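ok so for the tutorial part 2 we go from a plain amino acid sequence to predicted structure tokens. step 1 is just haveing the sequence, like this:
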Amino acid sequence: MNVPFPSPPDIIRYDSEASAPSERILREALRRPVAGKPLQELAIGRSDAVIVISDSSRLVPSHLFLPLLLEELNRGGIPDERIRIVVALGMHRKHTEAELRQLAGTNVYDRVAVVNHSPLPEHCILLGQTSRGTPVEINRIVAEADLLVVTGNIEPHRLVGVSGGVKSIMPGTASQRCIESNHALSQRFKAVPGDPNNPIHRDLEEVLRFVRIDFALNVIANHRREVLEAYAGDVHEVHRQGVEAAAKRFFVPVNRKYDLVIASAGGHPKDAQLYQAVKTLQNAAAFAAPAAPIVLVARCEEMFGNGLFQYWVETVTDRAAIVRKLSERFVLGAHKISHLDEVLREHPVYIHCDMPEPLTELAGFRSARDLNATVTGIVGQGIRHVAVMPYGSLTFPRPEQSDQAPTYSF
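step 2 — the prediction. this is what the tokens look like for a chain of 410 residues:
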């Protein structure tokens, strides 16, 4: 970008440096669980195993650790033909065969069954109900596993506080009814990114009353899918240690509010769709001065990324009407419009993406088709302090209680 900034922009980014090669970090984590028995020991005497992995919208390098997990299970006496891998889609779109092969790695895909999770009621089992009334309906394959292994990455999450841990099961392998019920709690409760101690995450945790997770492997990954940290063993301790480590990686102080914030989602998969890119916009807004413009750079080759999100944007009269309707009744997918509205009411937002301009305009954005010209024009209006966020999806404003570790509710 060749723009005559009044002074060099501040670069705001998370800590993305790895201390060792990914495979070494993963092997060490599996060799020394933070709590509980090694996976090989847990596999002894078990009839079958199910491994839950994240879908392609996450930065988890599943293809790196799946061969290691299979190796441990085989050594414990569970052969490949009695191992299945379930992709924790939640309500995200199902993956093609080519995507499943890429996600798991060709060698693993050719060895064991790799399947998409289905949130349809006929593919899930009702196991009970949480104390907040969420029906715990979990994928039948997952619920009936003799040995259940969950994997995922840990990073701040605006809706539930933090990802990882039980989130791979609920909402990852839950029914639509279950997911909507849990996410609807966000109308009453707000989570602090990085902190799992909130009613929405505690509702997720109650899945452990009904589903036994035998072994967990959680990683902290950067935008290149390199493993920065890895924790294995008992799901409670794995998540607790991972949350504390993530807090040191993804939060940066808000030292000033900027007259212009230019934020990139950080490339694929964080910018594959507007549904995911909204998270970058929320992070960028925390660093922007009141009414300051924000420029969002996100390819969005999959457009909105959610059918209901797109339907509501295209059909309901205006954004205010959508927000009003969503305040009366939570609609999964369309709820992203409320998140978008929180930023658009405070800031003019320009978007540089592959989506057609009429659609981005309906969503409330201004066009930045020519990125250089757009930024140059904004700067020419008297902008003084500019911030650039190259990996906005992973760069969060440090909470005010920055000297405190995140509280833990497990």
